[in-house]
Design brief:
Blueprint (H helix, E strand, L loop, with lengths): L1 H9 L2 H5 L7 E2 L5 E4 L2 E5 L7 E12 L4 H15 L7 H8 L4 E3 L3 E7 L6 E3 L7 E9 L6 E5 L10 E6 L5 E5 L13 H9 L9 H11 L4 E9 L3 H11 L7 E4 L6 H5 L7 H15 L4 E7 L4 H12 L3 E7 L8 H7 L8 E4 L4 H4 L11
Parallel strand pairs: 1-6, 3-10, 11-12, 11-14, 12-13, 14-15, 15-16
Antiparallel strand pairs: 2-4, 3-4, 4-5, 4-8, 6-7, 6-9, 9-10
The structure holds 2-acetamido-2-deoxy-beta-D-glucopyranose (5 copies).
InterPro entries: APP1_cat, Mg2+_PAP
Pfam family, one: APP1_cat
GO molecular function, one term: phosphatidate phosphatase activity
């Protein structure tokens, strides 16, 4: 409103003369908006109120994916002898968000079905991202759909899911790459291929194990925590949604603002995975301090170290840690002894692929971890 009147009085140049920090606006037709499926939790101050921890990314399409794509194509061709010619559409769509530029100062208004309050995420940060706790008023206990309010000229349908969960009971924190999805995290090129081209493949037996946990833990809050860049969200969400349909939940991903080829495909080796994952566990603990979580990961990156540290820090909040032993990873006794130093050995289980079906028989609800 202020903008349009100044434009009328002083002319269009005024808009460009305003300092960028003063700009604050809602999503318009030229913007793309992505709202991540979000966890909701009981407001500790006011138990009748529900809070949603909402993450949104607002961007503009700034450049073409073609340069990224050609770099990746020639790399894969040279090193794996892989011609991605026929997979170019898949690779382009998975790279799409890397070719966007985040917009700061954007407000995202929305409604969530079954909740009392219309709500708004206030002002995305530089980089276009924001994560905020937003009050929804009184909500039902079931999964609900949220809808972003767009202008009357904007016919797009921007929706997301909200996963509420009670203050007590169980949850499952799960890694994605090489825990529930075959990603070849230890091999940069195979990782690039699995990430950009291949139809994603689950770790055999894990969808069934998670479906079984959904029953035995009485609809636990599943939260997927991965160090993959958030730009891969549409791809990963689609995979979890279809392949792990009985154990759907929010997916927490890392911020990556670079469009540098090597960091796009080398995220699994990036430094700081331990710090990032530990921060996500802190975030989950902040929302659900009264729950108990089963933490599931693998031996490729830093899951043993992260979960060991979380047990030392939070005790029974992490009821059990399960670690998939991945061939070629550091699976030495010395590694696990260090990762789980000071942790009761009955609280964690290292498992091979052959043992996956038997995970469903473990009475986690009854206090067993192995
Ligand atoms: C892949 O490399 C071969 C030669 O090694 C070349 O003939 C072919 O055109 C390349 N394909 C692509 C898609 O770059
Ligand atoms: C991502 O960026 C947002 C906005 O700056 C910030 O609030 C959030 O904590 C960041 N997430 C991670 C995982 O660093
Ligand atoms: C949410 O929307 C999907 C379709 O997008 C629909 O199938 C589902 O039933 C909706 N869920 C609720 C709780 O309204
Ligand atoms: C959201 O609320 C939780 C629980 O009170 C708290 O731990 C966390 O710090 C809050 N996050 C933000 C971004 O305010
Ligand atoms: C495996 O991890 C242990 C403990 O961190 C370390 O001492 C050892 O050097 C590692 N081995 C390899 C092959 O990386």
């Amino acid at each position: 409103m202020r903008f349009s009147s100044s434009l009328v009085i002083l002319g269009a140049s005024v808009a460009y003369a305003l300092p960028p920090l003063a700009r604050r606006s809602s999503v318009n037709l030229l913007d793309s908006v992505l709202v991540f499926d979000a966890p909701a939790f009981q407001d500790h101050q006011n138990p009748a109120n529900t809070l949603v921890q909402l993450q949104a990314y607002v961007s503009t399409r700034q450049f073409s994916v073609a340069p990224l794509l050609s770099g990746i194509s020639s790399l894969l061709n040279k090193t794996l002898g892989l011609d991605i010619g026929s997979d170019i559409a898949t690779a382009s769509s998975r790279l799409e968000l890397f070719a966007t530029v985040g917009l700061s100062g954007k407000d995202v208004s929305f409604n969530v079905g079954g909740c009392g309050n219309a709500a708004s995420l206030q002002s995305t940060a530089s980089g276009g991202m924001a994560i905020q706790n937003i009050s929804l008023g009184a909500c039902g206990a079931a999964e609900a759909n949220g809808t972003v309010d767009l202008t009357s000229l904007d016919s797009r349908d921007v929706t997301f899911r909200v996963f509420p969960s009670s203050a007590d009971g169980f949850g499952v924190i799960s890694d994605i790459d090489d825990t529930v999805k075959i990603s070849h995290s230890l091999d940069t090129l195979l990782l690039a291929k699995a990430t950009l081209i291949d139809t994603p493949v689950p770790v055999t037996g894990m969808p069934e194990v998670y479906a079984s946990l959904a029953q035995s833990l009485n609809s636990p809050q599943f939260i997927y925590v991965s160090a993959s860049p958030f730009q891969l969200y549409p791809f990963l969400r689609d995979f979890i949604d279809t392949t792990y349909s009985q154990s759907n939940g929010p997916i927490m991903l890392n911020n990556l603002t670079t469009t540098d080829l090597s960091s796009i495909i080398d995220f699994a080796r990036a430094d700081g995975v331990f710090e990032y994952k530990s921060a996500m566990i802190d975030r989950i603990q902040g929302m659900y301090p009264g729950k108990k979580f089963l933490a599931v990961g693998d031996s490729t990156q830093k899951d043993p170290e992260t979960y060991g540290e979380a047990i030392r820090k939070y005790g029974d909040f992490i009821a059990c840690a399960w670690i998939r032993l991945v061939d070629e990873a550091n699976n030495t006794d010395a590694r696990f002894a260090a990762a789980f130093e000071g942790v009761d050995p009955t609280k964690y289980k290292l498992y091979t692929d052959a043992e996956i079906p038997s995970l469903a028989n473990i009475d986690v609800a009854g206090g067993s971890c192995s």
